[in-house]
Amino acid sequence: MTTITIDPRRYNEPIELKFRGVKITLHIPPNFIPESVQGQYVEKNDIFEIHFNYKDTEAGMVEFENNQFVFIVGKNTKKLISISIKSIKASQINGIILEQKIKSELPQAFEQIKKHFNRQVELRNFDVSRNVIMDGADNLIKLPA
Amino acid sequence: MPILKYIIFAATLVTAIVLKTSVGYVNEDLIHHFQGYILLPFLLSFIYHHQFIVSVVCELIITSQIISGVLLYPRNYIKIRKERLIKDLCAKLFNNNPIDHRVTLFKEVNYSYAVWRHICCLCYHLIRPRYFFRFKLHLMAFPLPGNYLIVYIREGSYKTSRTMFRVEENEVKKCQGVVGFFRFQKGDSAFVTDLPDISNIDLDKVNLKARKKAEETKLVLEYMRKGNLRDIESLKIVHQKARHFLGSVIYKEGGKPWGMILVDSNASTNPFTPEILDKFKIYSGLLTCLVS
Fold first, then answer.
1. Rounded to an integer, what distance in angstroms lies between the CA atom of residue A126 and that of residue A65?
2. Nearest CA in chain B to A58
3. Considering only the top CATH level, what class is B74-195+238-291?
4. How far apart are the CA of A9 and the nearest CA of chain B, in angstroms?
5. How close does chain A come to B115, measured CA to CA in Å?
6. Which residues in chain A touch residue B281, judged by CB atoms under 8 angstroms apart?
7. A42 DSSP β-pair partners
8. Span(s) in chain B for CATH 3.30.450.40
9. Which of A77, B91, B174, B175 could form a disulfide with B180 if both were Cys (CB 3.0 to 4.6 A apart)?
């Protein structure tokens, strides 16, 4: 299992939005910024799981699923809790292929899941999660030989 | 209704103690002594003939009341802590200036509680002739289905205000007021500043439907638009027409929103400096810890 720790100050830029002509400034709550990200191959289900750890714990639910990825979000807050990449062994995916897959196909899946949400805080959470994965994909992925 | 709850609690406890103590003193002479009274002989003879049952029931009541008191105490203790925190926040942010600024802790309640509270509010205003105009306002603004934010603790003016704001998890259009909008967005330290000053405008004289709108009407309309209020009745219910707002959502364990903390200000310029925002963030974090 590999872990990447996140510096919350990097992602604490205020969000500015307009509602009925009024300028509103808001910050992303601390419980919406993951503290760390873990990558792990789960042999039992043949999936590579990327798990986001937050300050608090919350039950998850499947929000988006296609033939490659499963996105699990928090039941109440809708923040991203984990991403599962399916059929690792079955498709004979090694570390290099998985990294390429993450870098090329995961952003599209992120764009698709973002369409389900309209709150700025949730959208920012997805952006932060995507950036963390993209920046640390090479450190995050470790598949058994 | 905490006072009523305590009165019922104390009355039940005292009655049980008196009954249990009196069991040993009741005899036939005493029953004969009170023969002329209406209910007392029946009560005394019941106690005399069922001494054991009365003792056991009274003992059960006393024990359960004491245990529930002990169990309820931590909740009161947490509320006192929250009150202190809000008071401290007000002092730290604005050097205790409750005239221009105030800090409110809103609690999110379900529809049935909101209706019950609204009915209590109507009764409260009905029995006070001075506030009859507010009774009419509240009557017109009967709560629609949905969750509501009610004033839980407030430091500043109108501490016991019964004003509440509708919130909806997925529909921003159904959220009421700036606080409702902040709650919908779930942001941390969200702020809106420089709403128009309408504190000196008599809202009863404002005609929103007039074809040629007066300056005052335009200001009121702008305030309603920026303040996320859809009708003039809702605006009239709001006691203090603040100009600047700063709020954060408070979460329960498991990520469910518990309520909101809101700072509102009547100051002529934007009072929310970066230092105030930093302090506010610390306090809202502390409140989340207390709630969860």
1. 15
2. B254
3. alpha beta
4. 13
5. 25
6. 27
7. A47
8. 74-195+238-291
9. B175
